[in-house]
Amino acid sequence: MSKPRPAMYAVASGDRLKMLMERTGTGDAVTVRELAASAGVSPATIGALLTGAQRVIPEHKAKAIAARIGVDLLVLFIPMERAGRTFIPAQQPTQQVGA
Predict the structure, then answer these.
(1) End-to-end CA distance of the chain
(2) Is the dihedral of CA 29, 31, 35, 37 positive or negative?
């Protein structure tokens, strides 16, 4: 039997991640290196999430990043579902009326 793939999460916005890194839940800033070390990811991963070069990461890494920043997981990440080889959002954002 094959091991099930981990749930995946897409970063909602690199700008939001940057803003929350500048002022975490404790009010202090966290650097890319500090966040990476505490979340168990490489600084390159955090940099790629900030720039949009990488959007999707496993659930355990998304939870670790959100926990270090001091916010709920869904403030930073969107749950993804697997459909074949393509990732699609689990919940589609709603459009504003008149937008």
Answers:
(1) 48
(2) negative
Q: What are phi and psi of 92, to 5 degrees?
A: -80, 135
Give the CA count within 13 Å in the CB-facing half-sphere of 13. Answer: 7
The CATH number of 13-86, from 3.40.50.1970, 3.90.78.10, 1.10.260.40, 2.130.10.10, is 1.10.260.40
Q: What is the greatest pairwise CA distance in the chain? A: 50
SS3 of 18, please? helix
pLDDT tens-digit profile of 46-57?
999 999 999 999
Structure tokens that stand for 62 in this block: 């998304």
Beta bridge partners of 90: none
**Which two three-digit tokens encode residue 73?**
């997981």
Helices 32-39 and 43-51, axial angle in degrees (round to 10): 120
Predicted pLDDT of residue 25: 82
